[in-house]
Amino acid sequence: MKTIGVLTSGGDTPGMNSAIRAVFKEGVGRGMSVMGILHGYKGLIAGMIRQLQHEDVANVMHKGGTVLRTARSEEFKQEEGFCRALDMLRAYDIEGLVVIGGDGSYQGAKLLDDAGIPTIGLPGTIDNDLGYTDFTIGFDTAVNTITSEIYKIRDTMRAHDRVGVIEVMGRNCGDIALWSGVAGAADLILVPEFPIPWERAAKQLVNNKIRGELSSIVIIAEGAGRAEDFAKYVRENTDVEIKAIVPGYIQRGGNPTAFDRVLAARLGQRAVELLSNNTGGRAVGIRNNQIIDVSLEDAIKTPDHFDEKLYRFNSVLAKF
Ligand code: ADP
Ligand code: F6P
């Protein structure tokens, strides 16, 4: 392949820039031109495409967000928009494509691959909700951000004998809640994978208080409910004083951790390696610290893996 393209799609994640840089470096190293497609599939349809230069990926490794920008595009899901996207790839002689995004972006990547443009998916989502890979780019950074917030919140909650319920991202996935909850020694973690009746959760907070543990930290994944709703329920049904905290987008931005930068670099490198062998239709990931690739179809189909053992371990600890 002489010319390949790269785009970021869906929610941005810290570490996407490292992946873009790796695709560029590996591509140029193999004598390819690397085209940057701006604003995801939306920009592809609009022809927002230009050849990447060294300056585009210099000094970006440590930055959150994505230098290519990202977007969601309903138009791409329609036949007309999709055909225009294909025409654009052909007009720019893009023979292979790297799509950095989550499962929605992978659906689009598979369609492009099926239509004859070899396409590789890289897992870019802070949610860690792609089951074929142990980790997605940005998850580690989000967990670290939330973990450090937990300790700040804990200080002030403890000073007032209050409970803090912190809502973290994870549309259908409790991984950010679980990992930051374990790392931040949360008393209770609420995730969509193991729904706990709020009555039981509230009772645990009351028991904590009776035991003399006047301040507790609860982490709730957005897929398990809203922090404000949980706080309201607790206020209405117990004498526990509780505050809801929603850190929001701070967990999707900021400097990527070294782990995310290195992971993204390794994944980006493999993506170009595959394309240079004329291989498309694959999703790259990491399993047992080995970079692997599976078919895009399997990547989309593989159910998300939730670490039940770690979840139960935290519940046991929280009782004592
Ligand atoms: P993520 O990739 O983070 O899961 P989205 O689900 O929002 O984010 O998907 C990003 C974009 O991928 C969508 O805006 C759309 O353009 C494209 N996409 C999502 N689902 C499909 C689909 N079933 N077919 C084609 N394209 C899709
Ligand atoms: O997919 C990542 C994610 O951060 C989810 O956890 C969250 O529900 C969603 O994106 C929010 O995205 P936006 O507000 O950009 O639509």
Low-confidence stretches: none
For this structure, the quaternary state is single chain
- Spell out which ligands are present: adenosine-5'-diphosphate, 6-O-phosphono-beta-D-fructofuranose
Question: What is the C-level CATH assignment of the largest domain?
Answer: Alpha Beta
Compute the average pLDDT.
Answer: 96
Could you spell the SSE succession in H and E letters? Answer: EHEHEHHEHEHEHEHEHEHEEHH
User: Given the C-alpha coordinates, what overall shape results?
Assistant: elongated
Largest sheet: 7 strands, mixed
Helix content: 40-55%
CATH architecture of the largest domain: 3-Layer(aba) Sandwich
Strands, count: 11
Give an overview of the whole structure.
The strands form 2 sheets. The chain has a 7-stranded mixed sheet, sandwiched between helices. The protein has a 4-stranded parallel sheet with strand order 7-8-6-9, with helices on both faces. It is elongated. The protein is an alpha/beta fold. The protein is built from 12 helices and 11 strands. 48% of the residues are buried. The protein has 2 domains: 3-138 and 256-301, Rossmann fold; 140-252, Rossmann fold (3-Layer(aba) Sandwich), CATH 3.40.50. 44% of the residues lie in helices and 18% in strands. The protein has helices at residues 16-29, 40-46, 54-57, 79-91, 103-114, 139-159, 175-183, 198-210, 227-237, 258-276, 296-301, 308-319; strands at residues 3-8, 33-37, 49-51, 96-101, 119-123, 163-168, 188-190, 216-221, 242-245, 282-287, 290-295. The termini are far apart. 6-O-phosphono-beta-D-fructofuranose is lined by residues 11, 102, 125-127, 169-171, 222, 252.
